[in-house]
């Protein structure tokens, strides 16, 4: 499987404006897959409770943090999301020398959600994910299909002060701290010689496999990847294009800048075809802990034809019903063995309303242009409102309990009028 999807970005001061962390990700998935956006409040659990992930059940922890997730509707985990402590995580598929065709275990997307539920800093999320990886492993089909599409994972994780890049190969891993500037990841290993945390057996395993001679400087990407680091910088790759777009706005990167990068089709970052961008996320996190973070999600495919809607963590935030897909419980074809014998309808309310509008935009140039202008006007209005929150804070939290849902309703009303 040749690397073919997903990009995740983070910008920290001094690359970003206004002492803020800017996090962004496009989730590039099969074009017929529905991505939902869900909110789960913080919760306490009894000893011995379990949590049922996509394929396996694992031990639950005593307390989970509130999370907002953008996730393929058929599985438990998430492509990307944030928690109440303003930790953000996105994952990427990576392929290397180690086979990804293992037994069903935790998906990388399960690890994203578990990291968000269990860690209040980026570094703690690295620890959570790597401990779970050691205990349970990673594996299983990453598509709602019998084809057995499998991969290992890299993760970009940020909080209010720093970011971490975590890359895995089976149960082995390396992590790099990013304390300033910008970083982006695509579907290839990117950690080279700067390794700030690692699996204790990672180097010896590579040496035993003949991938490293045990004497030369250890370069994780060179040792564990099919590709050399020169290939990572190859002209025309999405990684290189993403890096160029970040550099173009270096020192002035904002939430709007990140949305523009995620919408860029010439670079391939906004992907089209059998694999396409099915959901997008941008988070704006002030480094000042007294100020809230704002997390924007599309919940619909193609950010160029979608609207980023804001979510803020407040104590009494409500469920996001219009972006919640139908649930099939134990009758879901994903839960029955053999799995994936059929595909139920997973379209949520916003997806259903957005689908014909996206088709109109594609088909009718003038009408489509008018619809897109209306969508972007809505988005700009919300972002202007959120700018006040990002600089002044939230005085009346209950007013924002339905922020994302109210924006979805406005968006759907705009579609109905179209």
Can you tell me the overall shape? globular
- The chain-level structural class is alpha+beta
* The CATH homology group name: Penicillin V Acylase, Chain A
CATH classification, class level: Alpha Beta
* Helix run count: 10
Order of helices and strands: EEEEEEEEEEHHEEEEEHHHHHEEEHHH
**Total number of beta strands:** 18
Strand order of the largest sheet: 3-8-9-10-11-12-13-15
Low-confidence stretches: 230-236
* Residue share in helix: 25-40%
Strand content: 15-25%
N-to-C CA distance: 41 Å
- How many separate domains? 1
Write down the overall mean pLDDT.
Answer: 94
CATH topology call = Penicillin V Acylase, Chain A
CATH architecture designation: 4-Layer Sandwich
Major β-sheet annotation: 8 strands, antiparallel
What integer value in Å does the Rg equal? Answer: 20 Å
Mind sketching the topology for me?
Layout: E1 7-12, E2 20-30, E3 35-40, E4 43-44, E5 50-52, E6 57-59, E7 63-64, E8 67-72, E9 80-83, E10 88-94, H1 108-118, H2 122-136, E11 152-158, E12 163-169, E13 172-178, E14 181-185, E15 197-198, H3 202-208, H4 220-224, H5 229-232, H6 238-248, H7 255-262, E16 275-286, E17 294-297, E18 309-311, H8 349-363, H9 365-392, H10 403-417
Helix pairs in contact: 1-2, 8-9, 8-10, 9-10
Family: Belongs to the peptidase C69 family. Secernin subfamily.
Protein name: Secernin 3
Pfam families: Peptidase_C69
């Amino acid at each position: 499987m040749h690397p073919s999807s997903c990009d995740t970005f983070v910008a920290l001061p001094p690359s970003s404006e206004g002492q803020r962390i800017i996090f962004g990700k496009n989730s590039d998935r099969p074009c017929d897959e529905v991505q939902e956006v869900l909110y789960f409040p913080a919760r306490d659990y009894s000893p011995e409770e379990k949590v049922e992930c996509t394929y396996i059940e694992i031990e639950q922890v005593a307390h989970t943090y509130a999370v907002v997730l953008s996730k393929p509707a058929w599985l438990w985990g998430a492509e990307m999301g944030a928690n109440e402590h303003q930790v953000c995580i996105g994952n990427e598929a990576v392929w290397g020398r180690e086979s990804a065709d293992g037994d069903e275990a935790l998906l990388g997307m399960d690890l994203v959600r578990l990291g968000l539920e269990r860690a209040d800093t980026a570094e703690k999320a690295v620890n959570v994910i790597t401990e779970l990886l050691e205990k349970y492993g990673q594996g299983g089909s990453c598509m709602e299909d019998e084809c057995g599409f499998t991969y290992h994972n890299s993760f970009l994780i940020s909080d209010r002060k720093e970011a971490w890049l975590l890359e895995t190969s089976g149960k082995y891993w390396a992590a790099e701290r990013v304390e300033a500037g910008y970083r982006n990841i695509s579907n290839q290993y990117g950690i080279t010689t700067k390794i700030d945390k690692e699996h204790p057996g990672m180097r010896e395993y590579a040496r035993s496999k003949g991938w490293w001679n045990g004497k030369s400087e250890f370069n994780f990407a060179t040792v564990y990847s099919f590709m050399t680091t020169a290939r990572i910088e190859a002209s025309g790759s999405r990684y290189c294009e993403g890096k160029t777009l970040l550099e173009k706005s270096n020192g002035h990167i904002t939430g709007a800048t990140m949305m523009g990068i995620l919408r860029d089709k010439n670079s391939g970052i906004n992907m089209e075809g059998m694999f396409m961008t099915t959901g997008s996320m941008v988070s704006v996190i002030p480094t000042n802990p007294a100020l809230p973070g704002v997390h924007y999600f599309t919940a619909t495919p193609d950010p160029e034809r979608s609207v980023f809607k804001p979510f803020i963590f407040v104590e009494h935030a409500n469920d996001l019903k219009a972006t919640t897909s139908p649930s099939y419980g134990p009758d879901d074809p994903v839960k029955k063995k053999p799995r994936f014998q059929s595909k139920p309808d997973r379209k949520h309310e916003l997806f259903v309303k957005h689908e014909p509008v996206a088709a109109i935009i594609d088909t009718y140039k003038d009408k489509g242009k008018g619809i897109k202008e209306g969508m972007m006007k809505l988005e700009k209005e919300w972002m202007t409102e959120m700018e006040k929150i990002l600089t002044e804070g939230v005085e009346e939290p209950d007013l924002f309990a339905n922020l994302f849902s109210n924006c979805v309703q406005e968006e759907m009303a705009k579609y109905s009028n179209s």
